[in-house]
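Intended use. Records such as the Plasmid replication, integration and excision activator entry shown here are meant for training and evaluating sequence-to-structure methods. They are not intended to support clinical decisions.
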Amino acid sequence: MSVQGPFKVECGEVFPHGVGVVGAVAPLIDFDRSTPENRVQARDKDTGLPVWTVDVMDFDPEARERTFKVKIAAEVQPVPPDAIDGVPVRPVQLDGLTVTPYQKEVGNGRQRIAYSLRAAGMSTPRYGSKSVSAVSTSSQGASKAA
């Protein structure tokens, strides 16, 4: 049996310690259709929607790779969750996440398995019935009151 194509996964399965946005959301440039004078944004081959890219950081302290590029196909530029005071990285939930494995050249003719990540969107992560920002705000209030 040959399994091909992207695998649908939950964000927490790929990033059990959480994940955060570490860069700005930017258009993915289609280098085949672009010229030095005219940069053309890539389009998703299935939906025709513009493709955006964002760098994220895996919060797993033992992760071998810490940052990843995630592609998001959306009509308008996705907006990361609001920043949390005192936290340099914005925690994020990657909605509609898919993973596509591929072989990556690592030098000297050696290859390893790498993963391409795509998401349908991003939102504020939720813990229990509260969002991260609500949990952060309530814990800050508790520490100030003490």
